[in-house]
């Protein structure tokens, strides 16, 4: 889907929808600290190898075959294809550049590797005093190769750990209507600031907007509690990691099928954007449920769910 009909509308959509990785990193940090009571380095590493790294290695195979042997990937550095094929494969796995969403895995793997240090820092608690400094670093250093993205997103991960560590104090505050109103206003203010005063949609202002969104949605979830529980939400939640792994394939297949059968992609609009999002979500969940039925519990080693 393209947005040639309205550049301004495209920017608005991107400002609110892009850089959602901040929320995922925040959730990862929150869950890491929440489960830290049960932390055992050996079990933790084995679990991540089975449920994250192994699916990543398997899911990557079709894309890597295409971009090593049949087609050149645009989102790589200039001299990338001067390397031998075996080294290209290693570089793709180390960077995740072979499939748009998969850059996230090499980056989050650095958090996995330093998990003992994060556990020690959480117990000490002094690292949380440095959270404002890490937020400034995130605004200054943009995402890039995995180790650069690790530095960029560290504040979001640490904020998630902070919100989990002090949940008994923070939850009553974050779930107050006046706090939600303040956070919602901050999201809107950052969005307007980026729209009128910044170029692009992945700026430091957008990062702060998404950090505000992390706190807003956490407070909203606490406020509504069990009211948000439903069978559909549970199914999507259980399939969420699988959706992350396969949705780029589904989107690409959909684009190629449309252009072959109909022609040029339609010009973008918010309604069409929502339709494509929901259709992709439905197809991904359907595929994941089929794989789960076929492979049982072993499906998590293939698609992460």
UniProtKB/TrEMBL annotation:
Membrane-spanning segments: 12-32, 53-70, 90-115, 149-167, 179-198, 204-225, 232-251, 271-291
GO molecular function: O-acetyltransferase activity
Location of the Acyltransferase domain: 10-287
Signal peptide annotation: none
Any one GO biological process: enterobacterial common antigen biosynthetic process
Keywords: Cell membrane, Membrane, Transmembrane, Transmembrane helix
Location in the cell: Cell membrane
The keyword Lyase is annotated on this UniProt entry: no
Recorded superkingdom: Bacteria
Gene Ontology CC terms: plasma membrane
Membrane topology of this protein: Multi-pass membrane protein
InterPro entries with a match to the protein in the record: Acyl_transf_3_dom (IPR002656)
Family: Belongs to the acyltransferase 3 family.
Protein name: Acyltransferase 3 domain-containing protein
Species of provenance: Catenovulum maritimum
């Amino acid at each position: 889907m393209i947005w040639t009909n309205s550049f301004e509308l495209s920017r608005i959509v991107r400002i609110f929808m892009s850089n959602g990785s901040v929320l995922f990193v925040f959730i990862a940090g929150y869950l890491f600290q929440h489960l830290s009571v049960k932390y055992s380095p050996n079990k933790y590493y084995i679990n991540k190898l089975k449920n994250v790294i192994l699916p990543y290695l398997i899911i990557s195979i079709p894309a890597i075959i295409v971009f090593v042997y049949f087609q050149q990937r645009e989102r790589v550095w200039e001299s990338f294809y001067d390397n031998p094929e075996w080294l290209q494969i290693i570089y793709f796995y180390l960077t995740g550049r072979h499939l748009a969403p998969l850059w996230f895995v090499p980056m989050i793997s650095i958090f996995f590797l330093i998990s003992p240090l994060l556990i020690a820092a959480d117990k000490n608690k002094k690292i949380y005093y440095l959270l404002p400094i890490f937020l400034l670093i995130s605004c200054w250093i943009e995402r890039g190769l995995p180790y650069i993205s690790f530095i960029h997103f560290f504040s979001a991960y640490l904020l998630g750990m902070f919100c989990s560590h002090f949940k008994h104090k923070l939850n009553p505050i974050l779930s107050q209507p006046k706090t939600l109103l303040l956070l919602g206003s901050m999201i809107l203010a950052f969005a307007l600031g980026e729209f009128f005063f910044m170029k692009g949609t992945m700026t430091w202002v957008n990062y702060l907007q998404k950090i505000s969104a992390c706190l807003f949605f956490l407070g909203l979830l606490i406020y509504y509690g069990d009211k948000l529980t439903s069978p559909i939400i549970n199914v999507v939640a259980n399939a969420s990691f699988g959706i992350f792994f396969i949705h780029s394939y589904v989107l690409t297949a959909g684009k190629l099928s449309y252009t072959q059968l109909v022609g040029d992609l339609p010009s973008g609009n918010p309604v069409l954007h929502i339709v494509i999002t929901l259709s992709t979500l439905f197809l991904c969940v359907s595929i994941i449920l089929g794989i789960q039925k076929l492979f049982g519990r072993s499906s998590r080693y293939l698609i992460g769910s």
